[in-house]
Amino acid sequence: MTNKIVNDIARLLPEDMLSEILKHAASNSAADFVNARLSCKAVRAASNYDQIFENVSMEKLNFVPWRKSEKVLQKRCEAAQNAEALYRKGMMDCFSLREFEFGLHCLKKAAEKGHVEAIYTYGIILICFGGELREQGLRIISSLDLTNSSKRRTRIVTSCRLKTENFLSNMWVYAALTEPTRISRSCDSDIRERPNSSSTSSEGQAWEASKNVGYCCDPCFWDGEATLFCSLLRKYLIN
């Protein structure tokens, strides 16, 4: 289909309908969305809305944007409050660019939009701070609702760990976190004492993702998870 035909079709559609089509395309593939924007002026004009960039799928884009076109798209998505873009900006600011306060703000905004990895990361950072912030972090992570199913916990936590390591391995890490101070509880064990919990496998299973009630309570599980998160940061830390 030539650009002229695409342009003729685009001109026949109401702009709001065309925008809705582009929103759907953007949520499935950033590449398809970008190609559509380049096809004709009518499509480009209909695509300049925040609600579209807010829903752009960044799944197949590099975690760290190196090309100019990727940087432009990343910034536009951030401005539109795209949850994945905010998460990526937060990770970069916190652990690479040393703009921790702004990075934490981005992670918070992404978490408030329900972004799973942002909830995980933001909650763990607060847990590492200790005190009332630790309690706030535990409340935030509880929104993942992992208590009723060990399989769900394993799946979500393992996914978060894999994405965290993939992200850190693709950027320069110049900042780390201090491990949380363990608070004594009545449970019998600490997740940090489990076999093989200190290493990381390609499948992400070596971070002990499953949670058995007999091992520890939720606060101890997340204290251990925060400790493992800190260990992973140190693994990629550039001194």
UniProtKB/TrEMBL annotation:
Domain At2g35280-like TPR: 61-168
Domain of life where this protein originates: Eukaryota
Cross-referenced InterPro entries: At1g67623-like (IPR040338), At2g35280_TPR_dom (IPR057136)
Protein name: At2g35280-like TPR domain-containing protein
